[in-house]
Amino acid sequence: MNKKTVRELINSKETFRIERTTSTTDQDKFCRAICAFSNDLPKSGKPGYLLIGVSDDGNLCGLQVTDEMLKYFAGLRTDGNILPIPTMTVDHVSFDNGDVIVVKVLPSTEPPVRYKGRCHIRIGPRKDIATLTEENILSEKRLSSLKSFDMSPCREASLPDLDIAAFSRIYLPKAIAEDVLESERRDIKDQLSSLRLYDKQADCPTNAAVLLFGKNTKYFFPGAYIQHVLFDGLDNAADILNQNEFSGNLVSMLPRLEAFVETSVIQKRPSPVSMLQEKILVNYPQWAIRELLMNAVMHRDYRSNTPTKFYQYKDRLEIVNPGGLYGNARPENFPDVNDYRNPVIAEALRVMGYVNKFNRGIARVQKELVENGNGKAAFTVDKVTVFSVNVTNAKAENVSAGTDATLDAKELVLSDKSLKILKLCSIGSHAKKEMLHLIGVTYQTANVRNLINPLIQAGCLAPIEDDKSKLRNVRFEATAKGLEYLRNRQSITQTEAPVDDLVDNLEPLLFREFE
């Protein structure tokens, strides 16, 4: 902005389009003003201006603007507190008696805009909280503007198709400030409409409402699920070890997906650093994988019948999403510039705590992956219909095509439960189910994969029969390598219980009929 324009703004009366302040630290005041300008209750269609460094009487306070100040004010746009994200610019102009920071805020096409759950408006020169009537006016204003897909009406759906209890119990208290919620007197349609989840003109839920709270989401959106496949190799031709489908509305599905990543995808094992120290090796940093999956949920094209693919190979993870880069995001500016195909779903993920700050996750993902030893994620962004990301397994150096990794007996590190299994098999042969039963663990795929398979892959256990027709009943015994490991461990760790003691402790179980 030029000096003449800014001088005119400084000298004009403070109206619903102009606010002056000398403070540079009152974040609540700045955000309330940005929120109110975005809502543009008078429907002027004109931008609002927040002038920092100017007193109420129009005098400059001698402010000296720094780069950190400009970054701070620009960051208010994407810190996740003002939703939907406002359209604004930050500039500054220098005068002889001080600098002025000018925050220009354009009217939102998706009102009502909220700051920390409250809808702020300007009534003349002052700010206030919008009444129910004023919020309805803002909602009607939104209906007249162009809608995104998730904001468009789902005409086949009706109110009974939504899990209203989940909306009221889980989402509403997080989306609306507590004191506002206590005074809430509107019916459920008005409540949903104020959060862009109900189209009052079409008298039906929006697509976002069905995706977030639908009782049968796949009926309306057949591709709205995540397909996880675990391959026993390096490509799709390998055998499938496990597969899962994560479907249902996002409010119920995302916690299941998050728990699955933590318990079944992320694998941790100790690695000795010295005789007295060890470090934990992790195949993938949990937060990074979680963030990539949440981005997939947030940015995918829900009009496609193709699911989000979450494929896990021995050496990498792949996440493939229907829908390429959207809007202002381009291959040449990704990930510095982003845009939102589903702004309502993006807002919901922020409200529910799955996304913390917009447009900053990729940088942190790359940082965590590098620090964990995975290397940077590789994004495929030049395709129109899909978006994909590959993440290398941090332990992939132990994986080669068609073979299992083996470790020297002195280098092998086992968990306490795997160690007990090895000891059991050193004094007798046991089937997998029996091994887990004897150490007090349930027979589940995850326990077999985490406790028994590492012993087999390391060459410490081997089957004593090769009856493929009775694979579940094949019995295993400790190999020479496994016995060597036990001898080395007992010689190093004085507190380790000897094998003979284990036999005495487990003797009643070993000779009891196994069911």
Mean pLDDT: 84
Strand order of the largest sheet: 12-11-15-16-18-17
User: How many strand elements?
Assistant: 21
- According to CATH, the fold-level topology of the largest domain is Heat Shock Protein 90
Distance between the termini: 81 Å
Q: Estimate what percentage of residues fall within beta strands.
A: 15-25%
Enumerate how many helices there are, as a single number: 18
Largest sheet geometry: 6 strands, mixed
The coarse silhouette is elongated
Give the low-pLDDT segments.
397-411, 492-515
Helices and strands: which structural class? alpha+beta
- Corresponding CATH architecture of the largest domain: 2-Layer Sandwich
Can you give the helix content as a percent range? 25-40%
Number of domains: 4
Radius of gyration: 30 Å
Layout: helices, strands, pairs:
Elements: H1 3-11, E1 18-21, H2 27-39, E2 48-52, H3 67-75, E3 82-83, E4 87-95, E5 98-106, E6 114-115, E7 118-123, E8 126-129, H4 132-143, H5 164-175, H6 178-182, H7 188-194, E9 198-199, E10 204-205, H8 207-213, H9 217-220, E11 226-231, E12 240-246, H10 250-265, E13 268-272, E14 278-282, H11 286-299, E15 308-312, E16 316-322, H12 343-351, H13 361-372, E17 378-380, E18 386-392, H14 416-426, E19 430-431, H15 432-438, H16 445-457, E20 461-463, E21 475-478, H17 480-492, H18 499-510
Parallel strand pairs: 1-2, 11-15
Antiparallel strand pairs: 2-5, 3-6, 4-5, 6-7, 7-8, 9-10, 11-12, 13-14, 15-16, 16-18, 17-18, 19-21, 20-21
Helix pairs in contact: 10-11, 11-13, 14-16
